[in-house]
Specification:
Keywords: Membrane, Transmembrane, Transmembrane helix. The chain crosses the membrane at residues 31-51, 105-123, 130-150, 182-203, 229-249, 269-287, 299-319, 325-345. This is TRP C-terminal domain-containing protein. InterPro entries: UPF0658_Golgi. Residues 381-404 are annotated as: Disordered. By secondary structure, this protein is mainly α. It has a domain at 20-214. It has 10 helices and 2 strands, in the order αααααααααβαβ. The protein has helices at residues 2-23, 27-63, 88-124, 127-161, 168-214, 218-254, 266-294, 297-316, 325-339, 356-364; strands spanning 349-351, 376-378. A two-stranded antiparallel ribbon has the order 1-2. Helix 4 runs antiparallel to helix 5 and helix 8 runs antiparallel to helix 9. The protein starts with a helix and ends in a 26-residue tail after the last strand. 25% of the residues are buried.
Length: 404
């Protein structure tokens, strides 16, 4: 146990050392890191203010008895909408305000995910991950631009469907949230332009670094790029799929699915399966990563079966979500990546935060010790051990081209 503690401490030190080195490597990496921190901080602060305004509006309308707090998470628990009752519009207002709050919370979580994804792209010098971060940043701007229009419609619903006089506290909080949302859109749009410029500069820097590692073999570059995409989808899956799974686990718990005890009850069985899959999701993704690094096809088959079960789980609970596309893509990439096993890519799997003193030892040894631990990564170190004859790419591979 003491040895493991010391080893973990040394790994943490190496991790911090290399992270600092990669972030301070050029002026563009420094600017990118500063921009990520600034963007995340501003988004969290402004979205926190907006969420607080929405909560105040919701609570004020409840205190005024203009709407009722819906205890259940069902869309229409009292069947008022189905029966077209007069006060059904109040339910729609309550649901709309609740969804506004949930959307703002998701925006905050997505901003935190962007922070991790962007910093990780710099440390790993991943071109694919850098491009994904830039695209996500543009999507955040689009999402932020949609929010003010939704806010206006929600305010109009309150004015039209809630009997006068209008509560000045409600009107003030709506207007205050709207001003902050407009400010957020403006800032996010400016930052997205800066992110695009910096990403282009880092694209050339990281692309050259990868070219020096992989070489000019086009077929090997293609395999390497596919593996990077697979790792990226794993990270996207860890966010979108996990957040969605946790959300629906909470929903089903609030609906008291656990009280529907019985092995023939479809809702109870679906609830149990969903909870188990949610718990196993993150370990399963780490297991898939390990399978790619070690080129273990049995592990990849097991992960593919898990993804198919996840798909059935979403079908059972009738999920229609923007996050569900991630695990379908992951299942397809699982098959494509497994097809590249044994084609010479394995020697390029390198431990991320390797100690400088260990490089000569690793290079002098054989490749069997290259992947002894789960931390061995692709695309991480500039020094590589010599390839064995059976790991070298075939002579039929072409030797021209660039890495993107």
């Amino acid at each position: 146990m003491p040895n493991k503690t010391i080893e973990s401490r040394h790994f943490l030190i190496r991790m911090m050392s290399l992270s600092k080195k990669r972030i301070q490597e050029t002026k563009y990496t420094k600017l990118f890191a500063v921009l990520i921190v600034t963007t995340t901080f501003i988004c969290i602060v402004l979205e926190g203010v907006i969420v607080n305004s929405h909560v105040r509006v919701y609570q004020e309308l409840i205190d005024n008895e203009s709407i009722e707090d819906i205890a259940s998470t069902s869309v229409d628990p009292s069947k008022k909408l189905a029966e077209n009752e007069a006060d059904a519009k109040e339910i729609l207002i309550a649901l709309g305000l609740r969804r506004l709050k949930n959307e703002n919370i998701f925006f905050i979580l997505f901003s935190l995910f962007q922070f991790v994804l962007g910093m990780d792209a710099i440390v790993r010098q991943s071109v694919i991950q850098l491009a994904a971060h830039t695209v996500n940043q543009v999507l955040l701007v689009v999402f932020a631009a949609i929010q003010p229009s939704i806010k206006v419609f929600r305010h109009l619903d309150v004015k039209q469907d809630i009997p006068p006089p209008e509560d000045p506290e409600v009107s003030w909080n709506f207007d205050f949230a709207l001003r902050n949302e407009i400010g957020l859109v403006s800032i996010m749009f400016l930052f997205s332009i800066l992110f695009t410029f910096l990403s282009y500069k880092l694209y050339k820097q990281f692309g050259w670094s990868i070219y020096k590692r992989i070489g000019a073999d086009i077929e090997q570059q293609s395999r390497f790029r596919l593996t990077q995409i697979f790792f990226l989808i794993l990270k996207l899956d860890a966010f979108f799929h996990f957040v969605l799974c946790v959300f629906y686990a909470v929903v089903m718990s609030q609906e008291k699915y656990y009280s529907l005890w019985g092995i023939i009850n479809r809702k109870f069985i679906g609830y149990v399966i969903h909870i188990v899959l949610t718990v196993l999701l993150i370990p399963g993704l780490l297991f898939a990563r390990h399978g790619v690094i070690t080129e273990n096809k049995k592990v990849m088959v097991a992960c593919l079966v898990t993804q198919l079960i996840m798909g059935l789980d979403f079908i059972l609970i009738l999920v229609d979500s923007a996050g569900s596309w991630v695990f379908w893509i992951l299942a397809v990439l699982n098959i494509l990546v497994s097809h590249n096993f044994g084609m010479g890519l394995k020697p390029y799997m390198q431990r991320l935060f390797i100690d400088e003193n260990d490089k000569s030892h690793n290079q002098s040894g054989n490749d069997a010790g290259l992947l002894e631990k789960n931390e061995w990564m692709i695309d991480e170190e500039e020094d590589y051990p010599p390839m064995k004859d059976d790991d070298k790419p075939s002579s039929s591979s072409k030797n021209t081209g660039n890495v993107s």
